[in-house]
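Checklist before submission:
- one chain only
- standard amino acids only
- sequence pasted in full

Submission:
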Amino acid sequence: MKRTALTVLGMHRSGTSSVAGALALLGATAPKTMFDPSPDNPKGYWESRAAVHLNDRMLGIGGSWWNDWRPLEPTRYSETQTGDFRSEIISLLQSEYGQAETIVLKDPRLCRLWPIWEPAVIESGFEPGYVLPLRPPAEVARSLLMRDGFSMEEGLLLWLQHVLSAERYSRGRPRVVLRWSDFIQDWSSQVARIAQSLDWIHDPSPAAAAAVDDFLAPDPRTRRSTLSEARQPSQIHDWANQAYGLMTALMLEDTAATHHRIDDLARLFDSACGLFGAALAPALVKAQTAQTYQMERDQALHEASVARDRIATLASESTERADQLRIALQSVQTLESQKSELEVHARRDAVVIRRMAASIDRLTDAVARADAQTDAVVESRAQAESVIQAMTLVRTQVEALEQSHARAQALASEQSAGQLQTLTETLERTFDQVQRQARVGAEEAQARIVFEVAARQEQARISDQALTEQRREAVIKAERQAEALYQTQAALDAARADRNCLEDQIRRHPLATWRRLRAASQTAD
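Returned file contents:
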């Protein structure tokens, strides 16, 4: 798999962030640890934080710094140092980009440090392809003046050093030189040049193209110099004008003739840097030391201010947490008191429930007795049926007597009238007596049976209704008690969780919390 490192080599404030960001939005992989946007670069730097820190350390070991306009000869580093740097770069590329196929590599410091970086990038499996953004030196110098307070002359020296170094270290390799203003006005055609020259295959989606349009939209905070400003001879040295013209010529044709003219200019510049750089070295080092000290002082003051704000915030949070802890403790105590009361009520309700259970048992016994009485009624009904059967037998006997009476009348002719009359009267009296007794007994038995059945059915119905009502009341009350106990337990669990959280905060910040609690206690007193 071919892996490409789209390497953006350019001077600070020359549009390197714009180019790198656009390439990343169009599909190339950006580093994982990038600097956050800042007021002077609101759309981001698109450079690796780890790479910048490494480059600053490499410059410092070589006796230089990021805004040093003097040449940085590779001979300043020993072979051991160079080997160590390359190992760090290989590890950095792996951690920042992983197995990405096409990456964006950007940091203006690379213009001076590329002889150390390039072998490490190639050893990591990447083929470098170079993009050199070009911005007029007056715009760059004025931007540095506004951002860092550099003089125009110092800004022009930095521009010359970075531009000439970027051209020297990318010569003879796949590269594209472009004007930043052209890239802003028509990025798609410039990206097409990059893709063709660096053999970068990409097919941006409409969404990606829209993202680049938005990313490259003009920012009112970015000021560009006018043509008249760029050509002011008092501000622009002839070498800077020549270098800008020669770099512009490389956009049209990358020829040996242009290379020779750039080399001639670079020799003059290096010679002047060697002459004046050596003479000004102590002053430059002193100025850089003072600037570093000022930056460190400003950083320390900023960190101190941030620390004070943080301490104030923590103090406020500690006081608030102490109040929360005190309230939570009060809530826990209240809930524990409520829990005790509810436990008392629960015990009382348990007694009531046990009593109701006993009542239910008694009602169950009553129902059992009612069932037994119902069985007795059934038995009485059986006895009544026996009585009815006896009455039927009596009726049969009466019929037999009637038949005997008929026979007696038939024998009247053979017996005397007095005997017949006596026998007849006796039979009739016997018949009437038996018939009355049978009727009265049957009526009494039937009335007794009906009364007993009705009474026992009513008693069973009343007992069943009372049992059902008591069961329903017992179930409702038990459910209410269970719900109250459940809610109380949930509240206690939540209170314990809050107390545990606050106790954990106390363990982590014991001293501050103790002070706040003591202060709060004294205030409450």
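Reviewer check: The domain at 4-254 is CATH 3.40.50.300 (Rossmann fold).
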